[in-house]
Amino acid sequence: MKDARPLPQYLVQRYQGWKATAHAENKAWFRRLAEEGQRPRTMVISCCDSRVHVSAMFRADGGEFFIHRNIAALVPPYAPDGGNHGTSAAIEYAVTVLKVANLLVVGHSRCGGIKGCHDMCAGLAPELEEKTSFIGRWMDILRPSYDRTEGAATEADRLEAMEKDAVLVSLENLMTFPYVRAAVEAEELALHGLWKDIAEGVVECYDSEAGRFVAI
Amino acid sequence: MKDARPLPQYLVQRYQGWKATAHAENKAWFRRLAEEGQRPRTMVISCCDSRVHVSAMFRADGGEFFIHRNIAALVPPYAPDGGNHGTSAAIEYAVTVLKVANLLVVGHSRCGGIKGCHDMCAGLAPELEEKTSFIGRWMDILRPSYDRTEGAATEADRLEAMEKDAVLVSLENLMTFPYVRAAVEAEELALHGLWKDIAEGVVECYDSEAGRFVAI
Amino acid sequence: MKDARPLPQYLVQRYQGWKATAHAENKAWFRRLAEEGQRPRTMVISCCDSRVHVSAMFRADGGEFFIHRNIAALVPPYAPDGGNHGTSAAIEYAVTVLKVANLLVVGHSRCGGIKGCHDMCAGLAPELEEKTSFIGRWMDILRPSYDRTEGAATEADRLEAMEKDAVLVSLENLMTFPYVRAAVEAEELALHGLWKDIAEGVVECYDSEAGRFVAI
Amino acid sequence: MKDARPLPQYLVQRYQGWKATAHAENKAWFRRLAEEGQRPRTMVISCCDSRVHVSAMFRADGGEFFIHRNIAALVPPYAPDGGNHGTSAAIEYAVTVLKVANLLVVGHSRCGGIKGCHDMCAGLAPELEEKTSFIGRWMDILRPSYDRTEGAATEADRLEAMEKDAVLVSLENLMTFPYVRAAVEAEELALHGLWKDIAEGVVECYDSEAGRFVAI
C-alpha cells in the first residue's frame, strides 16, 4: 500500500498527550478490557456527522458504548441476501454476541443525509437518483419518510419531520431482524429513539405513548 | 413505533450535566456549526468496538472528525450496483461533499470481527458461512487476509497480522473509489492506516516506505 | 502519599455535570445540611456489591439515609473488646448520636460473600479458612447459617436461604447492642430486614408474624 | 426474629415507583449483571454520612462502583489477626476477587467521626476513650492525624486538615495490604484521594506532586 501517508503531527502530538494522561490514568482498566473482552451495556447507532458526539454527551468512557455510525443513523430492513451489509453486521454482533441491553438510534438536526433524501425525492437532486450514487441508494431507505411528511408547513419543518421520522423508520426496521424482535419481546433489549438539536444541544426522546418526541 | 422506551435515567442525568457544562461553554460554536454547516478536516473509519475511542485518543471536539464506525473498520471495494452500501455512502459524502483532507482507517487489537473472520476461514465457525450471517458476509471482505497471513507462528500472531492487513485491504479498496483515487492523486486527500493496541494504548501507523506499521 | 493518582477525566466530567445541575439546584439545602448537621431518619446496612443501590431504589436524596456498606451487609455480635470495629462504630453513631428511627438490613441474591461462606463451610474453599483471609474471617459471622439451611433442596436454594438467614442473624446481632435493644424496646427505633433479588428487582421484607420474607 | 417491623409505607411506595420506572427500563441489564456477575471498574471507600452521595455525584449506575462505607471513610492498617475486619474484607474482595482498576477514598467536610476524634484527642470527650466506645476505638486509627495538624490556626482549620489527612492515612494504610501494594506497583490499580466540601459541592483531589489537595 504505497499511498498511505504519515499521520499529521498535530494528531501525533494530541495522541501522545492522551497516552501520557488519560491512557496512563486508566491503564489497568484498559488492560482488563483487552484481556476479558468488552461488555458494553449499550449499542448506539448514530450519524457520521462531526457535530454529533454521543459518547461525550452521555459521558461514556471506554467499554460502555458499542457504536455504529453511518450517514443519517439509518437501519436498513433485514435482508439476508448474501451481500455486505455493514449496519446489519453491527446489529447482529451487538445483539447476538454482545447481548447489549439498550439500543439507541440517534438522529439530529441539519442532517446532510436527510437533506439529500429530501432534495432527491423533491426532484431537486437528479444526480442522487443515479445508480452510482451511494448516498442516493443509501437514502432510498428513507424514501417513505418524504411522503409521510408531506403536510409540513415549510421546508425546514419537513426536514425536521423527516429527521425524526428516520429514527422511527430505523426502529421499525430494527424490529424486522428476528433476534432484535425476540430480544425486545423477551425484555432483554430496550430500543430508544432520540433526536438532537445540534445548535441548542436539546435532546428529544420518542415517547411511544404520546406518539411524539419529547425533550429529556 | 410502540416499542420505543424512555431513556434510562442515568443517561438523562449525565446528558443534563453535559448540557449545563460542556455544551453551555461552547454554545456559540455549536450554533455556528449548525448554521454554517460542518467542515471537518478528517474522516475516520474505525471499529464499533466499545474499547476504541478515536475522538478521545485524538482529542477531537465537535466539528473535527466525520466518523464512520463499522465491524472491523472495513471498506468494501467500489461496487455501484444499486444496493444499500452504508460504508461507501459515508466515503462518498466525506470525499465528494465535505472534501475532507485526511482519511484515517483505524484497526485494533483483540478485534472480535477479525477473530470471527479467522475462525470462519479456519473452518471453526461454520455458522458464519451461512447466507443469513451478516457478520460472516461482512467479513468476507477480509478473506484474502487469512491467506496472506499464513506464515504466522501462532494464532495470536496471525490475528494481529490479519488486523493490520485489514487496514491495508481497506486502504486498497478505498483507492478503487474513483473520487478517492482522484483526490489522492491530486494531493487533496491523504490516506492513513493505523492500528491500536487497546491494552497498552500504543498506536502504530503504516509506513509505506518501510512497508510496515511503526509506533507513532 | 506518593501513590495517589489524578481522578480519571470521565469522572471529573461527570462530577462537573452533577455540580452544575443536581448540586446547583439544591445549593440551599446542602448548605443547611452542612451548617446544621445531618438528621437522617434511617440507617441502612447494605452490601458493597455494585448491583445493590439502596438510595436509588428508595429514591433517597442527600440527608435521608445514613449508610454503612460491607461485604454481605453483616452485623457482628456486640464485642466491646477494644478492637477496631467499623460496623459497630457505625451502628453506635447512628443509634446513639444521630438517633435514627429506622434501621434497614438489606441482603440480596447472588451475593459473593454468602457464596464464599457457603463454599468455605462446605470444604470447597480452604483458602478462606486461613487466618490471613479477611473475607473468610468476616464470613465466620455467618457460619451458623450454613448449618441452619441444611435442608435446602439445591445449592441455589441453600444460597438464597443463607442470604435471607444472614439478614436475620444481623438483626439478632443488632439486638445484642444494649442501646439498640433499649431503643427498640422504647419504640424509638424500628428494625427492618430486607432481601433483594437483583435480577428481577423484587424486594422482600421479613414478616415476623409470618416468620418469613414477603414481597413488598 | 420477632423484632423486625414492616417497612414504612413511604419507602414501599417509593420502591414501587422505582420498580415501575428505573428498574423496568433497565431490566435486561440488571438480569445480565445478575447472571454474569458484577465487573465494577472502581471501588469507593466513603463515609456513612447521609450528606455524601458518591454514586449520584459521579453519575454511576448499577454495576459501576463497588462501595464500602464506614465512619470517616477510614482504612485500618493490614492486621491479619483472625478478627472480623469488615473494611479489610471489602478491600480484599475488591482487589483480589473483582480486580478493580481504581480505588477512591472519599473524605468530606463537617465529618462527625473526625470531630469525635479531634475532641477525644483534645481531652474534650472522655467517653470516647472508654473501651466500650466503638466510635472511639474506630477513630483510634486516626490519632496520628491529630498530632500532624497541630499547627492549624483555628479549630475549623484543624478539623479540615484532619479530614484531609485522614484520606492520606487511609491511602497509606491501603499500601500495607500486600495485594494492594502489588497491584499498585504492577500498575493494575490506581489509588485516588478525594475530599468533598458538602456545603459547596467542591471536590478536591490529592495531587501527589504538589503534595496537597486541589479542586477538580
Helix and strand arrangement:
4 copies of one chain form a homotetramer.
Chain A lengths: L8 H17 L1 H10 L5 E6 L6 H4 L7 E6 L15 H12 L4 E7 L3 H10 L12 H6 L3 H6 L6 H20 L3 H8 L4 E7 L6 E5 L4 E4 L1
Parallel strand pairs in A: 1-2, 1-3, 3-4
Antiparallel strand pairs in A: 4-5, 5-6
Enzyme class (chains A, B, C, D): lyase
Protein name (chains A, B, C, D): Carbonic anhydrase
Family (chains A, B, C, D): Belongs to the beta-class carbonic anhydrase family.
Q: Please identify the structural class of chain A as seen in this structure.
A: alpha/beta
What spatial form of chain A do the alpha-carbon principal axes imply? globular
What fraction, in percent, of the residue positions of chain A are helical?
40-55%
Global Rg of chain A = 19 Å
Report the count of strand segments of chain A.
Answer: 6
Distance from N terminus to C terminus of chain A (CA atoms, Å) equals 48 Å
CATH class of the largest domain in chain A: Alpha Beta
What profile does the largest beta sheet of chain A have? 6 strands, mixed
Q: H/E element string of chain A? A: HHEHEHEHHHHHEEE
Oligomer: homotetramer
In DSSP terms (H or I, runs of 4 or more residues), the helix count of chain A works out at: 9
Mean pLDDT of chain A: 96
Poorly predicted runs of chain A? none
Q: Looking at this structure, what is the CATH superfamily of the largest domain in chain A?
A: Carbonic anhydrase
CATH architecture of the largest domain in chain A: 3-Layer(aba) Sandwich
Largest interface: C-D, 103 and 105 residues
